[in-house]
Write a structure and sequence with these properties.
Two copies of one chain form a homodimer. Chain A has about 240 residues and is of the alpha+beta class. Helices cover about 20% and strands about 30% of the residues of chain A. In chain A, the strands form two sheets. In chain A, strands 1, 2, 3, 4, 5, 6 and 7 form a seven-stranded mixed β-sheet that branches. The first copy, chain A, has a three-stranded antiparallel β-sheet with strand order 8-10-9. In chain A, a hairpin with a 2-residue loop joins strand 1 and strand 2. The longest helix of chain A is centred in the middle third of the chain and has 16 residues. The radius of gyration of chain A is 21 Å and the shape is elongated. Chain A starts with 16 loop residues before the first strand and ends in a 23-residue tail after the last strand. Chains A and B meet through strand 5 and helix 2 of A and strand 5 and helix 2 of B. Chain A binds a DNA duplex (30 and 30 nucleotides) through helix 4.
DNA sequence: TATACTTAGTGTGCAAATAACACTAAACAC
DNA sequence: GTGTTTAGTGTTATTTGCACACTAAGTATA
């Protein structure tokens, strides 16, 4: 019994729901934060959750993630990366729900948040002080996102997503320290970043107490090609396909 | 209008199908191979594809992957890792299908293959000589799997999954060379692997032409704790959650 | 106007890791 | 024996990582 486009019955299999959840990071006042929404409906009503929602049938997973991101923060064209797909059968009491999780990084200066109709509040939480209990398995999702963020940091230019157009080298170092959760040697950081040749000197300086600091910008190779700067001299890849 | 378990309508959203595809690697005669099945039905009838299938509603993604793996190779309890989720809307002509891809590694000595009813042939292909055109986006899936395999190799003990219980150090080196696609220095490899302290000497040797070789086994810390041996002294993590 | 203080940025040296390659070891064939 | 083959060890130059001491350039204040 051969199957063809004509005989194929699309409803033959029972289907799970698929959601996209986006763990959105930013740095506020030098501290790493995650965006959470307060759920307004059953299930997990009154619990904080990572923003997300069901995918539309005609959009790709990444498009769905960008849509969610934009709905909550109004941000477009931002760093976005698939994290992991969570699919244990009991993770959602409504029905079988499979969640494709993404990581996004937004600039500290973009912070107008929009409460969608699914939620009653939206808020940035410092990663060191997340709400007690999160909805679904979102605690797993956030903690995995954090560990991925840390390891990615070591071999991509991801940190630059968190900085304004121009910045000082010590500000960059501070971002690294925030995400890695450890302090780095000033001298070694200077040398490393200079040798990588990914920064472009500007004529600007910023005054404050003490010696004024030179400002730099991230050197974008003409086009959009992403640089690979590796913090600890490492390996490449692990990208998507 | 509050929603509760009683008022929730599970059929409200249109749902995609979800499949699990497993890229299964092995080494045969010192060469890295991937398992492919020949499709018997529309769509892509007569094309080679990575083994996979629809998930059941009551099994986790990993369980589904293990089920597929066992159906094709009869192997259980093997190294398995989630790779990436592929979800562009047009990747399957039947309907919207989202594929969660996994990587599996099986021993060279396990090689009884089972043709399932979905396929008319199952076969190992050397990664250097895959079939011309693969079904769906499976070419992307395989090539991404390969790049992940290479980068994982450098900081896990994954290579040991490809070897029998006892093996010589040069055999291990050969596996590394196969996967990395480059040749390594004998002396440096010996030193590195010895210093890592992850091998246990056996009293066995194997004779052949030339000097007989000592055989070793992978030292499993009591329990199941996975060692982390890093080939190029690197970073950790990127694990799942 | 000197000197203390603060933040920015550079230099130096040791220890560890990498990489290249020359060497010794133990078997067999003749 | 001597040559050949595969296994395994040693030696050394070079590069990288890392800790820490130093110099630079401004502001505050006595």
């Amino acid at each position: 019994m051969e199957e063809t486009a004509e005989t194929y019955d699309a409803s033959r299999y029972e289907r799970p729901s698929v959601t996209v959840d986006v763990v959105i990071f930013t740095v506020i006042n030098g501290e790493l934060h995650v965006l959470m929404v307060l759920r307004r409906r059953w299930p997990y009503e009154g619990y904080w959750a990572v923003p997300g929602g069901f995918i539309n049938m005609d959009e790709s997973l990444e498009q769905a993630a960008r849509r969610e991101l934009e709905e909550e923060t109004g941000v477009r064209n931002i760093y976005l990366e698939q994290l992991y797909t969570f699919g244990s059968p009991q993770r959602d009491p409504r029905t079988r729900v499979i969640s494709v999780a993404y990581i996004a990084i937004v600039r500290a200066d973009v912070q107008e948040l929009h409460v969608s109709d699914e939620s009653s509040d939206v808020r940035w939480f410092p990663v060191r002080a997340l709400p007690e209990k999160l909805a679904f398995d979102h605690e797993d999702i956030v903690s995995y996102a954090l560990s991925r963020l840390r390891s990615k940091l070591e071999y991509t230019t991801l940190a630059f997503q968190l900085l304004p157009e121009v910045f000082s080298i010590l500000e960059l170092k501070h971002i690294y320290e925030q995400i890695l959760g450890e302090s780095l040697d000033k001298g070694n950081f200077y040398r490393k970043i200079k040798e990588a040749g990914i920064l472009e000197e500007t004529s600007m300086v910023r005054e404050g107490r003490g010696r004024p600091t030179r400002l730099w910008r991230f050197k974008r190779d003409r086009g959009d090609k992403q640089f690979v700067f590796r913090w600890r001299e490492d390996r490449l890849d692990d990208e998507n396909g």
